[in-house]
Specification:
heterodimer, A: alpha+beta, seven-stranded mixed sheet, six-stranded antiparallel sheet, 22 strands, 38% strand, B: alpha+beta, 20% helix, globular
């Protein structure tokens, strides 16, 4: 949502002359660039537990982050007040990074874009606002969702439904006199269900998260989430740990995009490459996976959790091809890394809040569809594993070793899905896994869940992938 | 105490908010006011690369209105704005459903001896003497750059003051003030084939004079270099030795399973475990939250309830759940504290150091870091990626990586062979090097 500039000036009690004075204060010690990030975020939450919505609340977070760059060096400070005295003190603290004039400027400060945000190009218009609406408006949704889940399975003993929403007003300004502003909504619904069958207990969960208004709380969403959270519970009870070891892995469409996020996305974030730590630091322009594969990081998907009208440095949201036809074509850049590599920023400068300096971060990371059929990929495996539900992942940037935790999947035996499996970790190496992709299906799905990336700071992201076959990964087991 | 800690005006504002919420219709109120001042110096390859300065304040309200409950917070400290915020918050609470289990703790359970905030000796006045130049010098003093094979060295020195005050409508006044000084370095090295290996080292302490700056980056570099040349070893059952630095990965899920929230939601593999011997006789785990000067200690939990030294697991028997007022009433059990504060695993097996453990078990895999993985809270099943070293004849023979361990926590802890005595004081949980028999490794 993009409001008029005056809306943001009113919230933060600033105007253009004050902002100019503040950036001048930041550059007082000789820094080459100064930017300001004003944020006013309101959070709301409601929790349904044991059959009633008995907990909820609102939270306010307000402040301004001031960054001063001296070449590639960063001075950062923030203030929770926008009084001149507090902001100026922060600007002086950030300015200390520079002890002498520096003439290296981040890309974009030499050719500033003074275009104002265009409301018509908004990627997350809001039909029903979260703010200014009584919390009681949302209670029926939670109660209805719980009731719908409960009626679907008699083994259910506990249900938790959580609704969380936030709206962030953002105003950005910098020493190149670029103005950007934005109002970012986010609504998230998560469900956790505990089932009991005899002496066995199992849990299942699901979530949905979008940059949109309260219109997301629909009957269609109730049907979707309720059916998803009970689906496959029989298999979950029947699931076993497989025998561990190296084997082919077929990754189902959608949430398996965690593979791209962990195995390659982080390694493509340009700060790791600028510092020489990434395993892909010297691979630009080289073929890193089979021909025909495109891997994208996209900030332009309407309503997507990772989408942005502008990143947190004021760079327009955009779609970035990291891999084209199997060749590494772009890292993910913020202004600092873009200046280092002499390229345009890719709109990946993101931060958790005004309390943090921006870093290159992913948005929605996915692979384009290929030509194969998912069933054919499964049929081509004589002994392996199929996985489609995950909880978390991790990567070691230098080594390229990544892991992700599989909540459910199946053994593949002679080309057919057989024994359900659960609770196993899978480990591999990024470059090796990319090179070992033997088939990509035509069923790309971007997962709608509430994914959060935790690289130093937490930011909302999403991921997607078509069904893919990887020749060999190490699967945990007994 | 200085302006870096809570001021009289800020404390008066919190008290005003407490009274105002009651005037506006809240029957019971708890407020936590906190303030954190942090400074950080980042170093990249021998030069200062970033600085950060932060001052955070937050006022959190827990409101009990007509049998209903809500939690609210704001970092905007203007009195007028807060009054509007509280008025609106009370209106919001009234829209929720009633819950008879919501209440403040019984007054006799509250901490009464934390009125100054400094009772535990975690506040170091030396903090006030720090200057920007001193911080830079401390950050740079630790570095090892340059070294053979070292391609990147990132370090951070940071210090902070954290001050919080919790008050409630039945007279609670509990304050906790602490300083923290921390150094951490991460090194990435390259072998002759261009493969990268990374590792880290760190130290943290509430008192500046105890911070071990020297050797931090050197240790990170040595740990990274030690990983060069990993070899593949076959899947199978091995003795698992876990470095103290990462051993909490195997204990935290057990503590979580004893948490009231998991138990009440029947999402715990330790349901109905109280007073049952589910762990081996050799295992005793304590909570020691009131040791003066000890990292992470607290006199009270977030409800203001006094912490106390107590066994969590004693000779294999589960001795406590972690139950706050709300969960205890939901479960019909006596409340305890809401979480473990300063966990200590007592030694068993007759080893003091990691070297003693390796010598005792002779063969196995020493895990020095975990790479991802997770566990199922309902079943206790786990699967984690690991890195470390193959151990033969009591010696580390070569690094291993891209391996996984898989099992169940109850089964794992019942295979405990050794708990040494080498936990570093800076760790939030005092867990030493551990060893377990016959664990499944996949490779």
């Amino acid at each position: 949502m993009i409001n008029p500039k005056s809306y943001y000036f009113d919230i933060f009690q600033v105007d253009t002359p004050v902002l100019d004075r503040l950036t001048e204060e930041g550059l007082r010690s000789g820094g080459s660039y100064c930017d300001l990030f004003f944020e006013n975020t309101t959070y709301g939450s409601l929790l349904l537990r044991d059959g009633a919505v008995t907990s909820g609340g609102n939270h306010v977070d307000f402040g301004v982050g001031i960054r001063v760059l001296a070449g590639e060096k960063t001075g950062y400070a923030y203030s929770e007040s926008t009084s001149w005295a507090d902001m100026a003190a922060c600007a002086r603290a950030a300015a200390q990074i520079a002890s002498a004039p520096v003439d290296v400027s981040p890309y974009g400060t030499r050719n500033p874009s003074r275009g104002e945000p265009n409301p018509a190009a908004d990627r997350y218009p809001v039909r029903e606002p979260w703010r200014g609406v009584p919390m009681s408006t949302f209670l029926p949704f939670l109660q209805k969702l719980e009731a719908d889940i409960k009626r679907r399975d008699t083994r259910i003993v506990k249900i938790i439904v959580n609704l969380a929403f936030q709206v962030s007003d953002i105003l950005m300004y910098n020493s190149s006199k670029e103005f950007k502003w934005d109002t970012r909504p986010m609504g998230s619904v998560s469900v956790s269900v505990v089932f009991q069958q005899g002496t066995q207990t199992e849990n299942k969960s699901t979530s949905r998260s979008f940059r949109c208004g309260a219109e997301m709380l629909s009957d269609a969403l109730i049907e979707e989430m309720a059916s998803e959270v009970v689906k496959g519970i029989d298999d979950r009870f029947a699931a076993r740990r497989p025998k561990g070891g190296q084997m082919p892995v077929v990754m189902g469409a959608g949430a398996s995009g965690i593979l791209l996020h962990e195995a390659m996305g982080h390694a493509f974030e340009a700060d790791f490459n600028r510092k020489g730590t990434s395993i892909f630091a010297d691979k630009m322009g080289q073929q890193i996976c089979p021909r025909g594969i495109q891997i994208i990081d996209d900030g332009t998907l309407a309503g997507n959790r990772g989408s942005l009208n502008f990143d947190d440095e004021g760079i327009p949201g955009q779609k970035t091809y990291m891999v084209e036809d199997g060749v590494l074509t772009s890292y993910l850049h913020d202004r600092i890394s873009a200046a280092h590599y002499g390229v345009r920023p890719t709109g990946n400068g993101r931060r958790e809040s005004f309390r943090y300096a921006p870093l290159p971060r992913m948005r929605a990371t996915y692979m384009e569809s290929g030509n194969a059929k998912a069933d054919d990929l499964i049929a081509s495996v004589s002994k392996g594993i199929y996985v489609d539900e995950f909880s978390n992942g991790q990567v070691q940037i230098g080594e390229g070793d990544f892991t992700f935790y599989v909540k459910s999947g199946y053994l593949i035996e002679n080309g057919r899905l057989t024994q359900p499996v659960k609770d196993i970790n899978i480990i591999g190496n990024g470059p090796e896994a990319l090179a070992a992709m033997e088939g990509v299906a035509d069923d790309l799905a971007v997962d709608p869940g509430a994914w959060t990336c935790g690289k130093e700071q937490s930011v909302p992201v999403s991921c997607g992938i078509p069904t893919v076959l990887i020749r060999s990964l190490t699967v945990g087991g007994e | 105490m200085t302006n870096n800690t809570l001021t009289k005006e800020e404390i008066a504002l919190a008290k005003h908010c407490l009274a105002f919420a009651q005037e506006e219709g809240a029957q019971k109120v708890r407020i936590t006011l906190s303030k954190t001042l942090m400074n950080l110096i980042g170093v990249l390859n021998g030069e200062v690369d970033k600085t950060a300065h932060a001052l955070d304040r937050s006022l959190q309200l827990q409101l009990f209105v007509d049998g209903k409950f809500g939690t609210f917070s704001s970092n905007r400290m203007e009195q007028d704005g807060l009054e509007d915020f509280i008025r609106e918050a009370i209106g919001t609470v009234r829209m929720l459903q009633a819950d008879a289990c919501r209440d403040l703790p019984a007054p006799e359970r509250l901490e009464k001896g934390a009125t100054e905030g400094t009772e535990l000796g975690l506040y170091d006045t030396e903090y006030e003497s720090l200057t920007a130049e001193k911080r830079r010098e401390m950050a740079l003093r630790s570095m090892a750059w340059p070294r053979e094979g070292l391609i990147s060295e990132e370090g951070e020195y940071s210090d902070s003051i954290f001050d919080s005050l919790t008050i409630d409508s039945q007279g609670l006044y509990a304050r906790h003030t602490e300083t923290s000084f921390e150094i951490g370095y991460e090194s990435t090295v390259e072998d002759k084939d261009g493969n990268h290996f990374s590792s880290y080292w760190w130290d943290a302490t509430p008192r500046m004079e105890d911070l071990r700056l020297e050797g931090c980056a050197e240790k990170a570099y040595e740990r990274a270099m030690a990983q060069i040349g990993p070899v593949d070893i076959p899947s199978g059952k091995y003795t698992l030795i876990v470095d103290s630095e990462c051993a909490s990965k195997l204990l935290t899920p057990v503590l979580n399973a004893l948490g009231g929230f998991a138990l009440q939601q029947k999402n715990s593999f330790l349901t109905d475990s109280l007073d049952k011997k589910l762990f081996p006789e050799e295992l005793t785990i304590l909570d020691a939250p009131r040791t003066p000067g000890d990292t992470g200690c607290r006199l009270f939990d977030s409800e203001g309830v006094a912490t106390r030294e107590m066994p969590i697991i004693e000779k294999g028997v589960v001795k406590t759940y972690f139950l706050n007022t709300y969960i205890s009433r939901k479960m019909g059990l006596e409340p305890t504290v809401e979480d473990a504060t300063r966990v200590k695993v007592l030694p068993t097996g007759g080893c003091k150091t990691q070297e003693d453990v390796l010598e005792k078990v002779k063969d196995g895999i020493l895990v020095t870091g975990f790479n991802g993985g997770n566990s199922n809270p309902a079943t206790g099943n786990f699967s984690y990626g690991i890195e470390g070293f193959l151990v033969k004849g009591g010696k580390k023979v070569h690094p291993v990586r891209e391996m996984l361990i898989t099992g169940n926590f109850l089964d794992l802890w019942n295979k405990l062979l050794v708990a040494a005595e080498d936990a570093r004081p800076c760790l939030s949980k005092l867990i030493p090097t551990l060893a377990f028999a016959d664990i499944d490794f996949s490779a």
